[in-house]
Amino acid sequence: MSQKLKATIRRIMKWEQLGTPTAKETSQSPEQRVQLLPGVLLCLIVSLVCLLITSFFPTLSSMLLAILLGMLLRNIINIPEILEPGIAFSAKRILRWGVVLLGVQVSLSDIVQLGVPVLILDVFAVTITFLMTIFIGKLLKVDKDLTSLIAAGFSICGAAAIAGFQGTIKAAEEKVAAAVALVVLFGTLMIAQIPVLIHLLDLNLSQGATLMGASIHEVAQVVATAGIMGSAYLTVATMIKLARVSLMAPAIFIFNLFNRQHQKESQMKPALIPLFVVGFILMVVISSLKVIPTSWTEPIKYLQQLVLGAAMFGLGLGVHFKSLKKLGLKPILLGLISTTTIIFVVLICISLGLFAHIY
User: Fold this and answer.
1) In 3D, which of 245, 90, 80 has the Cα closest to residue 157?
2) Membrane-spanning regions, if any (predicted)?
C-alpha cells in the first residue's frame, strides 16, 4: 500500500467529530477527497443490495448481511488499495451519520404520551441490563471494550448504540463488528422467541407490545415482531422502543462522566457528549417540533438504514477472522445472558403493572 494511501487512512481513523473536521482535515486536497469515493460508493451499493434482498425476507437483517459480506470478502480476496480510504471513512464517519439520522424517528411528544410508568420501565430495563452485562463481562473476563459495546447494544438500541459508544471508547473494529453481529443475531432470534413467550405467558395486547418494545434490541426487529403478532401491536411497541432509543444520549453522557473520573490525569479524557450524539439530540428536537414533513419520514428512515448498512459493510471489511477468533465464545455467552436479563426484567415490570395505563 502506498504511503499516501496509508496517510489518508490514518487521518480518517483519527476523525472523531461528525461534520466538524479539524483545520488539518479541512486542508485536504481535492485529490485526497476523491480517494474516498470508490470505497464509499462500494459500501453504499452493497448496503442497497442488502436492503433489496432483505425486503423479500423481512426477518433477515440487512445490517447483519452487510457485516457478514464484508467479513467474508476481507478474508477470501485481496481488497484493492484504491478502496481502502473510503472503507475506513464508511466504518467511522458514515457510521455516526447513521446514529444522527436515527434521531428523526424519535418524537418527545410521543414518548411523553407513554406516561411516567412506562418511561420508568425503560430506564429500569436499560440500567439493570447494562450494569448486569458489565458485571457478567468482568466475571467471564471478556475484553472490557467489547463488554461495554455489548452492554450498550443489548440494553439500549442495538447497532446505533454500539456506534455511539464506539465513538467514545475507540474500540478496535473487530470488537465493534463482533458486538454488532451479536446484537443483530440475538435480536433476530427474538423476533421468533417473543411471540412464543407472549402466547406461553398468555399476555394481552398491551403486555405483549410492552415486552416487544422494552426488550428487543433493534427498532426494525420490533417492527418485524409486531408484524408477526398483528398490526395492533405496532404503535405501542414502536413508541416504547423509541423511548429506549432516546436514552442513548444520557447513557453515553453518564458512561463518559464515569470514565473521566476513573482515568489518570495523563490520559486524554473523552468528550462528555460527542458531537455526533449532539447531532442525534438535535434531530430528536427537530422531529419533536414537527418541522420535518410527514412525507419525508419514511425516506429518511430508509436513508438511515442505507447509511448504517454501508457502515456495517465497512466494519466487516476491517475484520480479520484470526483477530475475531481470539475473542472466543465468551462474548456469545455474554450476549445470551444480556438478552435473557432484559427479557426477565421487562417481564417483572409487566407483572407489577407498569404498563397498565397505556390503554
Assistant:
1) 245
2) 36-57, 63-82, 118-137, 149-169, 175-198, 242-259, 271-290, 302-321, 333-358
